[in-house]
Automatic annotation (TrEMBL):
Residues 1-110 form the CENP-V/GFA domain. This is Aldehyde-activating protein. Keywords: Lyase, Metal-binding, Zinc. Pfam families: GFA. The keyword Lyase applies. It comes from Neisseria dentiae.
Length: 131
């Protein structure tokens, strides 16, 4: 699958299932205005890597963005890449699989999808991060 930022300076090719995760943490909400919808992939093939800016938003994660247009590209946690679902023009068959940081979700929205939900502590235990 291929993903591109808004201006096309950065593109990513990944092999990933079409399963999405919604992150409700405060950092995702501040970064994008609501839940962050991502799919998980291992080491994408990157074109335009010189246009990727990195911001270490916690001890265990980096948020990456296009330095040309500001598009949110992915959050990197160790070897896992949580890639912004909006970057994929071909999103047919995408399915919301889980919601994380559910205990941090803003009160102004609800997702109707019936998915497994992990709290902040449960997710951090899974990825080996610290609060």
């Amino acid at each position: 699958m291929e993903a591109k930022c808004l201006c096309g300076a950065v593109s990513l090719k990944v092999e990933a299932e079409r399963k999405l995760h919604a992150c409700h943490c405060g950092k995702c909400r501040t970064w994008g205005g609501g839940a962050g919808f991502t799919l998980t992939a291992k080491t994408p093939e990157v074109s335009g890597g010189g246009h990727i800016g990195r911001y270490r938003s916690s001890e265990w994660a980096e948020r990456c963005f296009c330095t040309q247009c500001g598009t949110h590209l992915f959050v990197q946690v160790g070897d896992d890449y949580y890639i912004n679902a909006g970057l994929f023009a071909d999103n047919a068959g995408f399915e919301l699989e889980s919601q994380i940081f559910i205990d941090c979700k803003a009160s102004y929205y609800e997702l109707a999808n019936d998915t497994p939900k992990l709290t902040e502590s449960e997710f951090l235990a899974m990825v080996g991060g610290q609060e």
